[in-house]
Amino acid sequence: MPLVDGHLATKMIRLLEKTAADPTKLRPRIPIVAVSASLMEENRFEYIECGFDAWILKPVDLWRLDFILRGIKDRDLRQQVQYTLGSWEQGGWFLS
User: Fold this and answer.
1) How does pLDDT run across 30-70, given as a tens digit for each residue?
2) How far apart are CA 74 and CA 71, in angstroms?
3) pLDDT class for 25, splitting at 50, 70, 90?
4) Do the beta carbons of residue 83 and residue 71 sit within 8 Å?
5) What is the DSSP-derived secondary structure letter of residue 37?
6) What is the DSSP letter of 56?
7) What percent of the chain has pLDDT over 70?
8) Partner residues linked to 57 by β-bridges
């Protein structure tokens, strides 16, 4: 992205969610999926801290991406692709 990278954009979205939300209205958290060839498992806590909900590595397996994205609405699917140590290359959700 020309002006900000994914980390900064995610932080900006999370800040906006906290500061611009009308306290009388409940809005769900915007799901953010990191897509990159350079995401590394040892940095997973940084990605979580930044505000990413899920990730998938490039080259993207479209079937797997579809499965991850369906987890936005289906909590059971989200738990099926939740992060487990050693399965980094598959992508998935950090938290259910």
Assistant:
1) 999 999 999 999 999 999 999 999 999 999 999 999 999 99
2) 5
3) low
4) no
5) S
6) E
7) 91
8) 36
Average pLDDT over the chain, rounded to an integer: 90
Amino acid code (one letter) for 89: E
Q: Other CB atoms closer than 10 Å to residue 83's CB: what's the count?
A: 20
* End-to-end Cα, the chain, rounded Å: 28
Cα separation, 90 vs 54, in Å, equals 11
Integer Cα distance of 88 and 57 in angstroms? 9
Calculate mean pLDDT across residues 20-34. 77
Q: Which residue has the tokens 């994914």?
A: 6
Q: What's the rounded Cα separation, in Å, for the pair 47 and 7?
A: 8
| Number of residues in the chain | 96
For the chain, what are the domain ranges? 6-22+29-93
